[in-house]
Amino acid sequence: MHGLSITCEVVSGDEGGWVFVWSLVTRRPTAVFRAHEKAVIKVQWFNSGGRIITHGRDNKLYIFQLGQELTTKIPTKNDTGEQWLKPLMVHSQDVNALNFCAFSMYDDTLIAVPGTLSSETVDVYELGAGNQLRRPLKAIKPPEETSKTGIVMALVVTKDRLAVGYESGTIVIFEWDSSGSFHVIASHKPHSQAALSLALHKNLLVSSAADQYLVKYDISTGKLLDSLGTGHTGLQSAAIRSDGKILAVVGWDNMVRVFQLSNFKPLAVFKTTSQPGSTTISFSPINNPNNENNSQALQSKIEQIKKSKIMASHWLAVGGKDGRIGLFELY
């Protein structure tokens, strides 16, 4: 699930392989198609919202170009998607999805995924001209002297850093370059159980895990900066707002916990849905609601008012296994 407030839309994927583009103005889908034969692990906008990248449990990574008119009907359990229109697929890549770890994308060009041949390693791809993917880094793994880490559970990639969270609770930060060389600049084991999520804002990296801890690092130096015991295990997914002020975490208990990023000061706690199984969390970017480019496509004054209000709000979206997306407005 990923939000894009420029067009007031959210894109989400479900366990049936379907992808939905939702309008925050009408609360209805504007596009529906089946991208994967199995569950969608992650879906994300990129290229300023003109494209969608999807990662499925069918071991496929797809890049779709939006633009054509697609079906807006909600599928039933019997729909296979074969007769439904799909957006133009500009790239398809075989990837590893055996360990439920989703891809990480940086600057619309770099994509990190679990290693194709081993779930304990990481591959990094670069999207170049002609929508071709090259693989500057292959089978990245910690040095042999590092204790057994288990499989890769969470990833964050930047232009020269790669942070990896492992099944053992170990967090390793690599420095790398486009020539294919890499080395470890830091290895920490702040978690007693599997790492579940990594979130990044500039140089600040936060990890959450199946244990109760939130841990903050400087990804440029690898230094561990702070740690917070929340008193609640199963911190499934973490997200940092684009202004770098707020961190939100959703747990197995369906509770969202909001913190000030700078010092982990608790700000809010609230429940998402009545059914267990909240799986992902995402902030909308902070935007200027008076941006003229964002209102050119509006067709009515009422729609313009609604859209301006949405863009002026600080939305937090939470997705659950019950098929619902909860929208919450934060300060």
UniProtKB/TrEMBL annotation:
Record-linked Pfam families: WD40
Keywords per UniProt: Chromatin regulator, Repeat, WD repeat
InterPro entries linked to this entry: WD40/YVTN_repeat-like_dom_sf, WD40_repeat_dom_sf, WD40_rpt
Keyword Transmembrane helix on entry: no
Domain of life assignment: Eukaryota
Family of this protein: Belongs to the WD repeat ASA1 family.
Functional note: Component of the ASTRA complex involved in chromatin remodeling.
Protein name (record): ASTRA-associated protein 1
Organism whose genome encodes this protein: Trichomonascus ciferrii
